[in-house]
Specification:
Blueprint (H helix, E strand, L loop, with lengths): L2 H28 L8 H27 L5 H19 L2
Length: 91
């Protein structure tokens, strides 16, 4: 497998985590959470705080189940990102 194919597979693996992180970060930023930094900076911080653990969940799901895209992995992703978003919102 060449480097471009490997990179494409890696991007496809973590894309759900980054997509959900972007949506949740938008909601958190619009609700005014994240301090007094400019909106784009708050949004970027929220994305990183959400996408990195989400990516770890997807990689762990691949390792533990032996396949990408299992429902249990996506359920864990929703649980982890929801928990992190609630923590970021101060709830």
């Amino acid at each position: 497998m060449d480097a471009w194919t490997l990179a494409a597979h890696l991007v496809a693996l973590v894309a759900p985590a980054w997509g959900m992180a972007a949506l949740l970060a938008t909601a958190l930023t619009l609700r005014g959470h994240g301090g007094s930094a400019p909106g784009w900076r708050r949004w970027g911080r929220h994305v990183l705080w959400l996408a990195l653990p989400g990516s770890a969940v997807l990689v762990a799901g691949l390792v533990l189940t032996g396949a990408d895209g299992r429902i249990v992995t996506y359920a864990a992703l929703v649980g982890v990102l929801g928990s992190v978003a609630a923590w970021r919102a101060g709830r």
